[in-house]
Amino acid sequence: MSYSMFVFRANAAYAHDIQQDTFMALAAMYVEASPVYREVAWLRDWQAFWIEAAGNQGNGCSDLDPQKYLTDDDRIGLFREFLSDYRSWVSATAASLKLITGYDADKLVDFTETMEAVVTGDRTNPRVIPSHAVPFENWMNEPFAGPSQTLT
Question: How much of the chain is in helix, strand and coil states, percent to nearest 5?
Fold first, then answer.
């Protein structure tokens, strides 16, 4: 099990690498299935990155590279709409997604809520911390948005 960070501008949150990979795989499917998001060129570029990068993360969520794709307020706004629609889709397909991923929908939704809180700088979310203050001591004991994994 490896752990990583999702970082955007001045904010960050801890996550499991598997959360990132699961998001990238499922979100890529959702972009492809959605007529609205399928037409957004920068989101399609990001989707291609997700497909290429999923499973290859040496240091996890920071490799989602949101700074490259969320370059202005309009894109941030559209990405927030995307996350909201994606969460609705995850909730509506919870049983199938659990069968495919092994994760409960609430864990998948929690991760996207954490992503959105990082992107918007919502420090009321207990998982969001200043990116410049990322502690490297005892960080594996922090609460995570996703499923708890046990090592075998």
Answer: 60, 10, 30
